[in-house]
Write a structure and sequence with these properties.
- The protein has 7 helices and no strands.
- It is mostly helical.
- Helix 3 runs antiparallel to helix 4.
- It is elongated and about 45 Å long.
Length: about 130
């Protein structure tokens, strides 16, 4: 019974924090959140890759600060995003385990952390 009360209390605290965070976002940041959610529905993105997409003059053109605030307000499993990205790569071409991890973690690639890239490559079956 105590565990249930702790879980419910933690859930309420997290919900309150996310509502407070969402309310503290500016108009452009809220729009960047909407853009982020649209991108994440289409394909996998790393945190840094999503910020870059949102702030790029060839992407959405949000300021880096607004893009960062928007992405930081999201609840995203970046490991799962890495697995989605890895699966997308493997559906187009073959990769070795090391090659896929390098692609996923490269600064000119997807910009996942090494840990996230390793997770994604393993989940996608490359390793």
């Amino acid at each position: 019974m105590k565990k249930a009360a702790v879980v419910i209390g933690l859930f309420c605290a997290l919900m309150s924090a996310s509502v407070t965070l969402a309310q503290s976002l500016t108009g452009p940041q809220k729009n960047a959140v909407r853009s982020s959610n649209n991108y994440l529905r289409i394909q996998g993105f790393s945190r840094d890759g999503l910020i870059e997409q949102l702030s790029s003059p060839y992407g959405d053109g949000y300021s880096v600060a607004d893009a960062t605030a928007a992405v930081n307000s999201l609840s995203v499993d970046w490991n799962e995003q890495a697995a989605r990205s890895a699966q997308q790569y493997l559906s187009m071409m073959g990769f070795s385990c090391r090659g896929l991890i390098e692609q996923l973690s490269s600064d000119v690639g997807d910009k996942y952390t090494i840990s996230q890239a390793s997770y994604g490559a393993k989940q996608a079956g490359a390793c």
